[in-house]
Write a structure and sequence with these properties.
This protein has 247 residues and is an alpha/beta fold. It has six helices and eight strands. The chain has one domain: 3-Layer(aba) Sandwich (Rossmann fold), CATH 3.40.50.
Length: 247
C-alpha cells in the first residue's frame, strides 16, 4: 500500500488530507472518508487503509482544521465535549463543501486517482455529511454510505432529508438500533423522503449496536458483528457502483 499526508491551502489555512491507495499506477476510483467528531487519528487511517485494499484511492480530509482540534480525543476530560461541540458548530455545510472540493482538486492532480465516479462514506457527523455532499455533488457521486449518523432528520429547513433532489448515488445507511441520534421515527421519515425521490438505498438497523459502534477504540460501544457487517455492505456498494481496478 502507498500512503501519504498532504496539506491543501484553504482560505482559513492549511488542511491535512491523508491519502492511501494500492501500489501500482492505477488509476483507482476515488473514495472520500468523512471523519467523525473525535478528530483525525490513526483509527480513521486504519479504516481508510481497509477500503484502499479493496482497490480504491481513499482520501481523508481533516474537517476540524479551522478549530485545530486533533484526535484522538479523551472523552473523560471535562473540556473535551465542549471543544467538540464548538468545532462541530463552526463546521457549516458550506465550509465542508469547500473542504471537499479542495480534496477532490487534490485527487484530480494525481494520475493514480480516477474521479469518474466518486464514493463517500462517513461516521457520526460524517454520516450526515455523506448524505449532504451526495446532494451537493449530484451525479459526480455514485455511492455514499452513512454509518451511525446523526442529524439526518431534523425540524430545520436545511435538514438533509429535505434536500435529496440532486442525489444520483446509491446509498447505504448503517444504523445502531439503540441510537438516540437516529430514532425509528426519524428513520421512517428519511425512508419516506428517499422513496418519494426514487433513490436507490438500503437502510439497515443493527440489533444491539450503539452510536459509535464502528470504532474499536470506543470499547464501551464497539460492536464487532455489526461493524463487520457494515464493512461488507460498504465493500459491496462500492464494487457495484465504482468498479474498482486492482493493481
Amino acid at each position: 500500500m502507498i500512503e501519504r499526508n498532504e496539506r491543501v491551502e484553504t482560505a482559513p489555512g492549511a488542511m491535512e488530507v491523508f491519502i492511501t491507495r494500492p501500489e501500482g499506477p492505477g488509476p483507482f476510483p476515488v473514495v472520500v472518508e468523512l471523519m467523525d467528531a473525535l478528530g483525525m487519528r490513526e483509527e480513521l487511517y486504519e479504516h481508510a487503509r481497509r477500503v484502499a485494499r479493496w482497490g480504491y484511492c481513499v482520501l481523508v480530509p481533516d474537517l476540524f482544521h479551522r478549530a485545530g482540534l486533533k484526535g484522538p480525543l479523551d472523552l473523560t476530560r471535562p473540556d473535551t465535549l465542549t471543544q467538540i461541540r464548538a468545532a462541530m458548530a463552526a463546521l457549516t455545510d458550506a465550509r465542508v463543501t469547500l473542504d471537499l472540493e479542495a480534496t477532490l482538486a487534490l485527487a484530480a492532480a494525481d494520475p493514480a486517482a480516477d474521479l469518474t465516479n466518486i464514493g463517500l462514506y462517513g461516521f457520526c457527523m460524517g454520516g450526515r455529511l455523506a448524505l449532504m455532499l451526495a446532494q451537493h455533488l449530484g451525479a459526480r457521486v455514485a455511492a455514499a454510505a452513512s454509518v451511525h449518523p446523526g442529524g439526518l432528520v431534523t425540524e430545520e429547513p436545511g435538514s438533509p432529508h429535505r434536500h435529496l433532489d440532486q442525489i444520483a448515488a446509491e446509498l447505504y445507511f448503517g444504523i445502531a438500533d439503540q441510537d438516540a441520534h437516529a430514532t425509528p421515527a426519524q428513520m421512517a421519515a428519511l425512508e419516506h423522503a428517499l422513496q418519494a425521490r426514487g433513490i436507490a438505498y438500503q437502510l439497515e438497523c443493527h440489533p444491539g449496536a450503539l452510536h459509535g459502534f464502528m470504532m474499536p477504540s470506543r470499547t464501551d460501544v464497539y460492536h464487532d458483528a455489526a461493524a463487520q457487517k457494515v464493512w461488507g455492505r460498504i465493500e459491496a456498494l462500492l464494487t457495484r457502483t465504482l468498479a474498482p481496478r486492482h493493481a
